[in-house]
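Morning. Coffee machine broken again, so started the prediction first thing and wrote up yesterday's gels while waiting. Chain of 62 residues, entered below exactly as on the submission form.
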Amino acid sequence: MTWQSVLKKTGLYLLKIIIVLILITAAFIGGVMIGYGVIGDGNSSMDVFEPELWQHILEFIL
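Came back before lunch.
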């Protein structure tokens, strides 16, 4: 096994991890936007990005 093949396999492994993390993040953002704006009481889906909303949510959790 050469260094080139090791680096190639490691690079592909890291690329897969990065792609999965991007897809998880996109699914989370899309789910929160749909859950708050369409299903929930929010007026707009973009309201989910306001810091006041997240502080209000954290008050319930903490």
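Residues 4 and 44 are 50 Å apart (CA to CA). Going to sketch it on the whiteboard this afternoon.
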